[in-house]
Amino acid sequence: MQIIPPALERLMLALSELPGIGKKTAMRLALNILRRPPGMALELSSALAQLHGAIQLCSCCFTFSENDPCAICADPRRDGSLVCVVEQPGDLMAIEKTGIYHGHYHILHGVLSPIDGIGPKEIKVSELMARIKSGTIKEILIATSSTVPGEATASYLIDRIQGTKVQVTRLACGIPMGMDIKYADRHTLARAIESRNPVR
Amino acid sequence: MQIIPPALERLMLALSELPGIGKKTAMRLALNILRRPPGMALELSSALAQLHGAIQLCSCCFTFSENDPCAICADPRRDGSLVCVVEQPGDLMAIEKTGIYHGHYHILHGVLSPIDGIGPKEIKVSELMARIKSGTIKEILIATSSTVPGEATASYLIDRIQGTKVQVTRLACGIPMGMDIKYADRHTLARAIESRNPVR
Is the pTM above the cut of 0.90? Predict the structure, then answer.
């Protein structure tokens, strides 16, 4: 017997496609949406329907944007000689929230992962090299994640860029702000000791 | 500066309306949807758009259904003299999954919660009393949650029904299957001791 109405099951299936949402959570979400007035479902539906049409990749830095070039690339107050290389647009948003960075960005849209068949051609590496060749960039700040594929991607980029005149820098690794030393993992602590700074 | 494109922000806002989805999760989901081909977003959008139009409440048991009466109320093989009272349609689905129950249902669509202004008139209590008055029901199995409002609702229903000729039963409370006694909480254990069964 069909206990779950097909229209509800269809929504549950579509929701369970989202990352971190299993069958039980999808059912809970779908039932919650159904219990509420239709307005909420229709707003979410409409936001989803217009999403891919409204957003494109900036042809310069490859972040998600409604305009091309994006607001950051088009802003004359930002420093175009400094480019921060990140894995995904979400990383750009996290760095923008700090309010401390005033350069441009370059979104790779992935990391090198040979086991998944992702090589340099699958991410925006040649586009980065073309930006470097154009001559306005003085510093590349590599801000890939501190994970195995993130570090491998950083090493690969450093190798590629070191033949050029551009200065390559990386985010500092060390103890997170507010963390008790005794709870820091030993790899982070080792990195913090190696990268210790002289007190000025 | 508008770092997050408005179309993406709109989706994030709509997603963060869902229960258990905060701003960070909404951003992660929205970026994931954007990174994937549009088909997934459009399917979810369409599933949401048709949801409220396709599904109504069964006029007999008040579960979500595309037909009225629902498949359970319309099934002549099910026992209409036994009615299980649950809080929400999700509870019905959980009970149906056991495969052990062959009676009808009655969905209250809530529990009594005076602090939230939810009294008997806000949930489907009068509809249940009307079904009882119609005379075909012999047993009401109360399956509200084992929470404070669930228990209060059960007590209220028992009071209301006890004036009629209908037998009222409740789900057994005790040790969950597979649970180690030493990890059971003391209220559950106390209930299991009080409700101990003679070995046949």
Answer: no
